[in-house]
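Sequence and structure are kept together here, with a separate record for every protein. A complete record is shown below as an example:
=====
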Amino acid sequence: FYAGSQSDSYGHLDKEIAAIVRSQGELILRDSQIGKRLTFNKSQSYPSAIIGLPMSWQGDDQGVFWVAYHKKKSFTAEDIDFFHSLSSKAAAIIAKRISFDKAVTLKTHLEAILDNLTDGILLLNGENVVVYHNHAARLMLGLEHITLVDAPITSLVSDRLLSDAILGSEYRGNEAREFRLADNGVYQLEISPVDLAGQQQGKVVIFKD
């Protein structure tokens, strides 16, 4: 990623600077030092000063942060501290974005797996509102044309006994009851709490085929 009016002119230095910084750590070059440390090509543009720093987050390499100056520049201790702070913040942003992308990918894969199960699965939050359902649950409840996500479970289940069982806390884990659902099939109801930091944040409702 490049930014700045001269970024295109100096982009050819990226791989070489990244290799040096990864090898030695902090890199500061000024004037003639640039020609000595970097491969020089008269047909390309070169800055008058460069500072490069490794980007690391919790021990993981996130890349290299470097800045080039078109005009002469002397780096003070305050300048160096400032760029260290910027590189740390950039590394944190990159690491969190990578973690987010991985989480989204994992969520997509998990949903694909759950959608292929014959058991119906509903995930409810602490207010008993549906936050996830698989395809089987939709069919079992006869709600093919209804939006389930963000709907209270009480608005989706007409069977009072089933609704009370889902809302209540007496039927969990291996304690299962059987219910006839809208598709006329008879299924075992299993409910497991979703706990976070010792507090219940929701529940998983499973209709076992």
The first strand starts at residue 27 and ends at 30. The beta strands are 27-30, 49-57, 60-69, 120-125, 130-133, 177-180, 186-196, 199-208. The longest helix spans residues 77-115. The mean pLDDT is 84.
